[in-house]
Each structure stands twice: as C-alpha cells, then as structure tokens.
Specification:
Blueprint lengths: L17 H11 L8 H14 L3 E5 L2 H11 L6 E5 L6 H8 L3 E4 L11 H13 L1 H5 L12 E8 L8 H10 L4 E4 L7 E2 L2 E2 L6 E5 L12 E5 L2 H11 L23 H11 L2 H19 L5 E2 L7 E3 L5 E5 L5 H10 L5 E2 L8 H7 L7 H9 E4 L7 H14 L1
Parallel strand pairs: 2-3, 2-4, 4-5, 5-8
Antiparallel strand pairs: 1-9, 6-7, 6-11, 8-9, 10-12, 12-14, 13-14
Length: 394
C-alpha cells in the first residue's frame, strides 16, 4: 500500500493580514501584556456586535463554558441535559463541577439537539421513578439528582432550535447555556447566535471564524452572572479586592492583551471572513454534486444565516470511511472524522457505563462524518482538487 504524501491542501488555515500582525506587535511596544486596555476594547466591540450588556474575554471557549456552568449554580449531583454529538468540552465543563450530563440524541439532519427528545427527557426526569431512571447513565449518576440545566450546542455553525429549548427551560425553571463556540455570526430566525440562551460562549481557536490563537468570549444580559464570571476568571478577585485578595475560589481564565488585540483586528473583518467561508462552502456544494456515496451538509429552515466553521460531509453507510481517508491521504488530501460520540469516549464509558447503541443517531453521524479541508483562504482550485480526489477515491 502506498504511503500518504505531504498535504497539497491544508486541513485548515487562519486568515491573517498584516493589520492583524501589526495590532499584536503594537501591544509589545507597551508595558501592558495582561489586564490592559485591549481586552476592554475587545469586549466593548463584542457587546456592540451582539447587542449584549456584557462580554467577558477568556483564554478559551472551554473556560467560558465552565464559567457559565458556575454562574448557573450547576454543581455536584445536578442533572444537565446536553448533546453527545459535540466537542468533548461541552460535557467536560459539567464534569468539572461533578454534575451529571444527561445525553439526548440529535436531529439526523443538523446534528443539533433533537428538541422533541429533550421535551420527552425533561418529562421523564421530572416524573421520577422508572421513567427517570431509564434516562440516566447505567452507573455514576446520583440516586436523587436535581434537574438543573440545558446546555445546547450550535453544531458546525448552525444554531440549535432555541425557541423550543427556551420554552422548555422556562417551563422547567432551568438555566439555559448556549455553546456557540462554532457559530460566531450565525443567525437563528433572524436573531444572533450566542444570545439565545441565558449565557452564550464563542471560541477563537485558529480554525474558527475569527481567531485569537487561543481564546473565547462569554456574552450575557445577566448583570449578576457577569459580575460573578468576571471575578472567577481573575482568580476569584471581587471588585475592591487587592491583587492578593480573593473573595472566591476562582481560575486564571483571563485573555491576554496580545490575544485581545488580534481579536479586535479580526472582528473588524468578520463580515469579510464569513463571506470568504461562505464562498468556499458554495464551491464545495457545486463541485460535490453528482459524486455518489456522499451527502453534503444540510441546514434547517430556522437557520437564516449559517456561519461556516468546518465542512463535514457524510459518507453512505456502505462506504469504508477509514479506507476512503487513506486513499485521500495518498493523494495529499487530509480529512478527519467529525465528531466521535462523546458517550463512547473511553473515560465516559468507564465512568458512566455507556455502550454502543445508546444514542443511535449520534453514533451514525459519528461513523459517517468526514471533515474536508476548509478555511476562508482556500482557493477555488484547491476545492476542485479535493473534490476530484474524493470522486476518484470513491
């Protein structure tokens, strides 16, 4: 069998300009590398963009989600409904606080939470008894857990069905957290992703719509939660605390000035960056037509604007995905499975006893999803090379 060759198309590349680089270099000309004016400027720009009262820069999307969990008073013994089809961070932040993630399967079209199943799960958990027990993992769940939250994810840049999730959260008096780390700029029924729950979080890893290298942003209109999260991200320092005073048990989740400066510069180009990603997605949609054995991404009617994070196709059930990936690698085309089900990660199986078959839609999407090379700096020629290689490899 021939070996793979060096990639002729990168899996992903950040879209950086000289202005971005100069913005970072300018910070190095100052004495302020942390807790300075740039983070305040970045947060103010985000508030304007989102129409939010508060925006808090943090050092990762994961950190942002963890602070939202803390602000929602989710803790040991609590049960939180969430998705098994996501990056592991959306589950891990619950485990950090010894809460139990209660998984609900996803919509086969979008990969987002199946809101009908969410409603059924909430009904069963509230009813108690055998109805509640069958919703819980086989082991590791508390005997009398308190239902205390919904954490939804905007998968691959498409918002979940937030009107239904909001109605359910209100009906059952639950905090609602929106993991919008993959969906900056997306819109749900004309409304801004990230502002559809009680708290929203964005991530700025290098493959995201904008990047700060590492970093994230929390947005909310909840004044008390914002004050708490600001203190917790800064080692638990409350307003009025000196540098060595700590009112709360907190974390070093701060965003530094270099990252914030890059974020400001990138955010000014958000519309341009989203347009370029949309163009690449359009080229893919055109060139993938007629290739047998694959399914292009699908979007719900409620998604009034997609924000392309990755481009994930699904191979037909009869296609050997691993063999296909190997043949593509031989042609210099890197691809990745996307996502692997959270409940089947080794540490989740060990802790909660999950088994294959527990969430069949998630497992099917996990078995058939294949992320193609994607970024806003891809050319039409590169997209064509990927699709030609895919056609030949199938």
């Amino acid at each position: 069998m021939s070996k793979s060759i060096p990639p002729i198309v990168p899996m992903s590349s950040p879209d950086l300009t000289d202005a971005d680089r100069q913005a970072v270099m300018a910070v190095l000309e100052t004495p302020n590398l942390s807790i300075g004016p740039k983070i305040q400027e970045f947060e103010a720009a985000f508030c304007r963009l989102m129409g939010a009262r508060h925006a808090m820069g943090v050092n990762s999307g994961t950190a942002g989600l963890h602070l939202c969990v803390r602000a929602a008073s989710i803790g040991a013994g609590d049960l939180v409904l969430t998705t098994p089809f996501s990056f592991v961070a959306s589950t891990n932040v619950l485990l950090f606080e010894n809460a139990t993630p209660v998984f609900v399967d996803v919509d086969p079209r979008t990969g987002n939470l199946d809101v009908q199943q969410v409603a059924a799960a909430l009904h069963d958990l509230s009813a108690g008894g055998e109805s509640a027990r069958r919703r819980l993992p086989r082991k590791g769940a508390p005997d009398r857990g308190r239902l205390n939250g919904i954490l939804g994810v905007d998968v691959f840049g498409q918002p979940a069905d937030w009107d239904v999730l909001r109605r359910l959260a209100t009906e059952y008096h639950l905090p609602l957290i929106e993991d919008s780390c993959e969906a900056l700029g997306a819109q749900y029924k004309g409304r801004t992703a990230g502002m559809l729950g009680d708290y929203g979080v964005f991530g700025f890893y290098p493959n995201k719509q904008i990047t700060t290298g590492e970093g994230g942003m929390i947005v909310t209109n909840d004044d008390a939660a914002a004050a708490q999260m600001r203190a917790l991200r800064n080692q638990g320092r409350a307003p009025g605390d000196t540098w060595l005073s700590h009112t709360f048990l907190g974390y070093n989740y701060r965003m530094d000035e270099l990252s914030a400066a890059l974020g400001i510069s990138q955010l000014q180009r958000l519309e341009e960056l989203m347009h370029k990603r949309q163009q690449v997605a359009d080229w893919y949609a055109r060139d993938l037509k007629g290739i047998p054995g694959i399914e292009a991404p699908q979007y719900a009617s409620s998604t009034t604007r997609a924000s392309w994070f990755v481009y994930v196709i699904r191979v037909a059930s009869g296609v050997d995905r691993q063999a296909l990936a190997g043949r593509l690698a031989e042609r210099g085309i890197p691809v990745r499975p996307y996502f692997l089900p959270i409940h089947l990660q080794p540490y989740m199986v060990e802790r909660f006893g999950y088994q294959t078959g527990d969430f069949p839609v998630t497992e099917d999407l996990g078995a058939r999803g294949l992320a193609l090379p994607f970024s806003g700096v891809m050319t039409e020629e590169q997209v064509g090379l990927v699709c030609q290689a895919l056609r030949a490899s199938l």
